[in-house]
Amino acid sequence: MATVDHRILRNISLDSTNVDEEDEMILNNHVCTHVPKDRFNSVYASLVLAGIGFLLPYNSFITAVDYFHSQYPGSTIVFDMSLTYIVIAFAAVLLNNFLVETLSFTFRISFGYVVAFFSLIMIAIFEIGLSMFSDGTSYVIVLIAVAIVSFGCTVQQSSYYGYAGMLPRKYTQAVMTGESAAGLLTSLIRIITKLVLHNERINTLLFFIFSSIVILVCFVTYHTSRNSDFVRYHVAICSKDARSTADGFQVMTEEEQLVNDVVTDGGTMINAVGGDENGDEGLDVDGSRYRYVKFNGQNSFELEYEQPASHNTKCNSIKMSIMKRYRLAKSVWPYMLSIALAYFVTLCLFPGIESEVINCSLGDWMPIIIMAIFNATDLIGKLLAAIPYAWKPKYLLIAASSRAVLIPLMILCVIPRRAPTLSSSVWAMIFSALLGVTNGYFGSLPMIIAPTTVPDEKRELTGNIMTISYNVGLTSGSAFAYFFRDLIGPAVNLCTSTYLIKKLPV
Predict the structure, then answer these.
(1) Do residues 32 and 45 share a domain?
(2) What is the pLDDT of residues 471-491, one digit of tens each?
(3) How far apart (Å, rounded) are the C-alpha atoms in residues 134 and 113?
(4) Helix, coil or strand: residue 343
(5) Residue 371: which CATH number?
(6) CA–CA separation, 149 and 115 (whole Å)
């Protein structure tokens, strides 16, 4: 039998006395007379910063590729950081799908910021600044820091997509725009610090400190915007139900809400409203008793008796939670597959294979430049995703799959090692730009569209399920990147004077 979330049964009054404009509109099938506005687009801006905040820590590690290559020459450090981050992220997103119903998204989001901030600061001070460890120990510590950042930021990321899914469509696009902006911002910070300070250790230390400051700004911005009337209004609607009143809005726990809870989860109602055998009006669900009361002139329910949770009740709750996700996945699977394929192709090439492209003139600037190109075009792709276009799921799936053609083209830029087939670095830059813009576009659309195809109360859960699929693509793509690196063979220093002399014609 289904269980009812007792938090939903509480009558929650949400203040909207600061609303100045009155509009009559239909939003998410609820008729409202007072709809709070996103003043000065502050919530939109906070969600752009949110996307920056949860991806900037990872981007900070991979964008400092020049420093890590010099610290661990001949290693697969970029591949290892990418795979470590993504494997932990996959585990974290699965865990978060259970935490979503036990911990508030405010707690989960704050947890991610705290973990990321302190991880970057610790690496900056003890690993980069003081160099307290040997190379072998240092390598392991960097990967551990990446794993910790991955766990915190992925719980945060999945929570943000659930949070944004409860708001109008453009706010999910804001989070994804922030993701791309994170990559571009870290690339710009890295370029500036490298230009201003020529000492590699000092400019990398400064780079990580700047990244930590940006995360702190994102944390403050989130807590400033989350209590706005606009956010509270939309979260209230998606929490279960909202009814307009003369003064604003409030969540009402009425008969149809409890009926929907039980019927949706496949449960059976006993002694429903209308009276039990003793003529008492009330509702019994899973042994808990709710009495029929009036609240502000409206009918609602109040918990009268709660049966202690048993082992079977907990097992049934877990089973129903899994079934709920399974039923939801059946309705949005084309979007889940589309986003998984989009990120699979991207992670096959970025950042691993792209960091292997060599240019003797640019030297250690080459991987930084090519990653900056990817991040800039990825941002462009996400901005293009904001343009309304009615993609059919089938065509969206085909388009996301067609990006696979970029894999062999980019690999030709690095094989054979001693004389790449597409030896000009211009080719690598063009393919990186195409990879970025298509990743931004086809990686965003499924995440934006999917929550709009389900009922309001399923939006947060849909955002979390889509994040699982997103991480499946990331994980599988990152694993395949190792296969492609083995295919292209060990690195060869094409820019040494000895090698260049041997290449000269007799």
Answers:
(1) no
(2) 889 889 988 988 898 888 887
(3) 29
(4) helix
(5) 1.20.1250.20
(6) 6
What digits encode the pLDDT tens for the residues 405-448? 999 999 999 988 888 899 888 999 999 999 999 999 999 899 88
- Taking the C-alpha atoms of residue 245 and residue 298, their distance in angstroms, rounded to an integer, is 11
pLDDT at residue 506, as a whole number: 38
Buried b (16+ CB within 10 A) or exposed e, 280-314: eebbbbbebbbebeeeeeeebbbeeeeeeeeeeee
Q: What is the rounded CA–CA span in Å between residue 280 and residue 359? A: 81
Place of tokens 């934006």: 448
pTM equals 0.67
Domain of residue 51, residue span: 39-234+314-497
User: What span, in angstroms and rounded, lies between the C-alpha atoms of 232 and 83?
Assistant: 37
CA-angle at 475, arms to 470 and 477, nearest 5°: 95
Helix, strand counts (H, E) of the chain: 18, 8
Give yes or no: residues 135 and 194 share one domain: yes
What is the number of domains present in the chain?
A: 2
Would you call the peptide bond into 393 cis, given omega within 30 degrees of 0 as the criterion?
no
